[in-house]
Amino acid sequence: MTDKKPYKSPRRRAREFAVQALYQAALNQKAAPEIANYSREHTDFKRADSELFNQLFFGALSNQVPYMMAIRPHLDRDEKLVNPIERAILLMATHELHAMPETPRAVVINEAIEITKTFGGTDSHKFINSILDKIADELAKNPPIFNNTSPDTEAAE
């Protein structure tokens, strides 16, 4: 019997790399382009959607303050107690919900849940699902009012 890894789409891989890069950014004092380049050096990155990675990582990172303002009211704990990987997933998915309306809400939330099952704690996916559902509802009722532009990512490539 062979231990084949399950197929992951280039978009799933991009989301996973974006979450890992956001996690690194939260824990390290390195510049975003350096973190992005580190991600790109990973063997599996060549099978990821590089453009989506750039949009998610740089977009979530540059808008993390307003995104956390949108997330904060839905937390069941102090923001400082949110696991860094859960925070990275919330930021990445909030950016995708906010800045990429062409991606269906259900896809964004499901991808975040699956990534949480891979990288998060035992029941973290329930926490992520609950918060993203509320944020998606708010975005549907009130179009975003904060900046959805990403910094120029050309220099990072």
UniProtKB/TrEMBL annotation:
Taking every annotated instance into account, which residue ranges of this chain make up the domain NusB/RsmB/TIM44?
A: 12-136
GO CC annotation terms, alphabetical: cytosol
Q: By its UniProt entry, which SUPFAM superfamilies does this protein fall under?
A: NusB-like
Q: Which GO terms describe its molecular function?
A: RNA binding
The UniProt transmembrane annotation reads: none
GO biological process terms held by the UniProt record: DNA-templated transcription termination; transcription antitermination
Tell me which UniProt keywords the record has, alphabetically: RNA-binding, Transcription, Transcription antitermination, Transcription regulation
**What family, per the record?**
Belongs to the NusB family.
Function, as annotated: Involved in transcription antitermination. Required for transcription of ribosomal RNA (rRNA) genes. Binds specifically to the boxA antiterminator sequence of the ribosomal RNA (rrn) operons.
Which PANTHER family does the record cross-reference, listed alphabetically? ANTITERMINATION NUSB DOMAIN-CONTAINING PROTEIN, N UTILIZATION SUBSTANCE PROTEIN B-RELATED
Question: What is the protein name given in its UniProt record?
Answer: Transcription antitermination protein NusB
